[in-house]
Amino acid sequence: QVQLVESGGGLVQAGGSLRLSCAASGRTFSSYAMGWFRQAPGKEREFVTSISQSGFNTWYADSVKGRFSISRDNGKNTAYLQMNSLKVEDTAVYYCAADRTTTQAMSLYRGQYEFASWGQGTQVTVSS
Question: Are 38 and 95 spatial neighbours (Cβ–Cβ below 8 Å)?
Fold first, then answer.
């Protein structure tokens, strides 16, 4: 099972940017679809974005479309979440997730797949 470690969280003012990274262990990173989820205090975990193994297919929650961008570097075993134009409501713990599902299955679920492996999360706080 792949091990995931998120980094890059922190405190930023509204309108600012952050880039999160998700480093994966092992030599099979390219066989995993990757996703980012978040959980705000008192709320359920929600889907943010996901990306297929090749990086060709991406999916986004409506709340982050046009502001967030997911990418991956299979040579570095790392997935990224670029967050621009941050809002106070983006404040949450952000989790990286991985799964060896197919792009077809990901498309069926519009990217909101039930990922099998999860990181520990990184806190993102956006101040007004």
Answer: yes
